[in-house]
Amino acid sequence: MEDQTKSVLVVGFNTRPLALSLKNAGYDVYAVDFFGDLDLYPSVVDSLILIKELETDYGTIKGTYSKLLSEFTVQMLKKYPRIDYLIIGSGLDDSYEERKAIINEIKKKNYRIKSLNNDVETIENARNIEYIHNLLKFHNFKVPLTISYIDFGNNKGKIQFPLILKKSKSAGGLNIYKISTYEELSTLIKNFGSDGFNQNDWLIQEYIEGIPISCTVISNGKE
Q1: Residues facing 86 on adjacent strands
Q2: 31-79 pLDDT, tens per residue?
Q3: Are 46 and 27 in contact (CB under 8 A)?
Q4: What DSSP line would sit under 59-119, residue for residue?
Q5: Rounded to an integer, what distance in angstroms lies between the CA atom of residue 174 and that of residue 170?
Q6: Distance CA 197, CA 189 (A)
Q7: Which of 73, 138, 157, 196 has the most C-beta neighbours closer than 10 Å?
């Protein structure tokens, strides 16, 4: 009798939690991962680990790891062309060209694998904070007042201290700062240096005191 177990390839910076959940759900799991934590291996049939394959570390390839994740994914597809599903996790969040390269390779080689990810246009919208805020406000959700850093000088008094300085695109709680005074803001920006602070990449946001929480929203397109 033919084995009906479905297989899935997971790709990301840290695939361990996803790989474990999929294994527990009965899937044969393959992984392309950055770190290759020891507790990843019991959950996967096979894996390609960036820092292991390249004998390097995060500091050396932090600017190119998205491209490398894409290239290693193509390698894994060549090795296992009959994998059923593809799930891309964190690590390729804003790497739209790398995502397209993976999908184009699947189409070019006519692999049977089915991508379970959102299309690139949907991901771009989801990563656009202005788009998300407008969508939430349209549905009567309250969101903190947010302006671009470039516009902050022309809107002094519109957002009072303390306030939040944050990157327009970030993940994992990184690059988010609570600022109490203008002097503190100036000092922080000076410490970034000219190469580390691009005004176009940052936002000023109203600070609202409360309980910090995170949530994941899953949709099938209808619900």
Answers
A1: 9, 115
A2: 999 999 999 999 999 999 999 999 988 888 877 889 999 999 999 999 9
A3: no
A4: HHHTTTHHHHHHHHHHHHHHH-TT--EEEE-TT-SS-HHHHHHHHHHHHHHT---EE-SPP
A5: 6
A6: 7
A7: 73
Model confidence pLDDT, tens digit, residues 130-156:
899 999 999 999 999 999 999 988 877
Mean pLDDT of 14-31: 96
Tokens found for residue 39: 């507790």
What is the architecture of the domain spanning 7-120?
Answer: 3-Layer(aba) Sandwich (3.40)
> CA 212 to CA 33: how far, in whole Å?
29
Q: Please list the residues that pair with 176 across neighbouring strands.
A: 166
Average of per-residue pLDDT values in the chain: 90
Homologous superfamily, domain 128-206: ATP-grasp fold, A domain (3.30.1490.20)
Helix %, strand %, coil % of the chain (to 5): 40, 20, 40
User: CB neighbours (10 Å) of residue 123?
Assistant: 18
**Nearest residue to 21 (alpha-carbon basis) of 90, 80, 117, 87:** 87
| Reported pTM | 0.79
- Alpha-carbon distances of 152 from 8, 12, 61, 122, 164, rounded to whole Å: 46, 35, 34, 29, 12
Amino acid making up residue 191: N
